[in-house]
Protein: NADP-dependent oxidoreductase domain-containing protein
Amino acid sequence: MADQTYTLNNGVKIPKLGFGAHFPETPPTTLPMARWREKKTNLFLLRGKTGTWQADPGQVSSAVAVALKAGYRLIDGAYCYGNEDEVGQGLRAGFDAGIRREDVFVVSKAWATYSSRVEECLDKSLKSLGLDYVDLYLVHWPVAMNPDGNHDRFPKLPNGERDIIWEHDHTDTWAQMEALLGTGKVKAIGVSNYSVRYLEQLLAKAKVVPAVNQIENHPALPQQDVVDFCRAKGIHVMAYSPLGSTGGPLFKAEPVVRLAEKYKVAPAAILLSYHIPRGSTVLAKSVTEERIKENLKLVDLTAEDSRLLDEYSEKLGREGKHERFVYPPFGINFGFPDQPQGVVVEGGKIISKA
Ligand SMILES: NC(=O)C1=CN([C@@H]2O[C@H](COP(=O)(O)OP(=O)(O)OC[C@H]3O[C@@H](n4cnc5c(N)ncnc54)[C@H](OP(=O)(O)O)[C@@H]3O)[C@@H](O)[C@H]2O)C=CC1
Ligand SMILES: O=C[C@H](O)[C@@H](O)[C@@H](O)[C@H](O)C(=O)O
Structure:
């Protein structure tokens, strides 16, 4: 599956399966997973005091190298992950092993403190990665944080809140992304974490329709409104956190277990395969060599299998139980129906603080 592709709205080909290079902190082995998840939520809110936690030195570069050698042809990174030097080393190991640059689809993302200077962010990423272009460059989140704040990536106010530039209009960031297309440093541009509301605001002003919207997506958060909207507008969906992020909390979902038994595969294979009939690219992340390899083995789910997973999603929706695992504390209402809290901003103006 990793060698199969979709075609983006500008003709560029993108693999169906990719390797995620977001390596957040590893759960301490002494903590039971339930306690870890509880603790992680609290720690997540504190993030920014020290920046993103780093994986052990060498872990990212070796995982990227293992992934490339195992057959992955898409590597998903971001400036904000703070590890693009290591991703670059992993890429280089792959190139040294004979894999050609033009056969690897490299993704990076413009971080919120660079919303008014996206080319600068891109240049920093390219330098770290050791590349002269990325295949896809995304707006990571539709928000701006203070470029002159107390941290390069996670500036905070004295009260601990993220240092947001409320006057910033996310469609201005998109205009800068459009300008990158003429530089030769990107093959395609897109967004990430855009709801239907935000996409509508962007499309009202855009000269170039985003090629991609990268969103959290799995049977416990199908985001069918966003997926359908993207499909109608020719925007390709990339699904992130398909296993439910750290620890893979979706492995025990009843239809996932049932389909894993039917196909005699790991539950992860079902959760990754779910996206292929939906027409999306799916990103898998693992630090573990055998899992990196195991995650390449997707299955062809039938329409009936997909229906089973969709029914599970719909039931959770009716019960108000959709679960979003990645929602950083920006304090903004980004327009996702399951996250109605936070400040509503539009066109650089605060509309409501509900
Ligand atoms: N645009 C955005 O805002 C975001 C983008 N992303 C992208 O999506 C990628 C994937 O999402 P991510 O949040 O990392 O989470 P995933 O849903 O991919 O889950 C990763 C977790 O699942 C475990 N795992 C992986 N494979 C298996 C397996 N076969 N069996 C059992 N456990 C497994 C990993 O463990 P271990 O590593 O210990 O093996 C890790 O704990 C990221 O790396 C990043 O590239 C993610 C979040 C936000
Ligand atoms: O891409 C993954 C996620 O979006 C991650 O980059 C953010 O959650 C970031 O760590 C933050 O705290 O805002």
The chain has eleven helices and twelve strands. Residues 145 and 164 are 4 Å apart (CA to CA). Residues 20-22, 76, 140, 192-193, 214, 240-248, 266, 268, 283-288, 291, 294-295, 326 surround NDP (ligand 1) (CB under 6 Å). The chain has a mean pLDDT of 91.
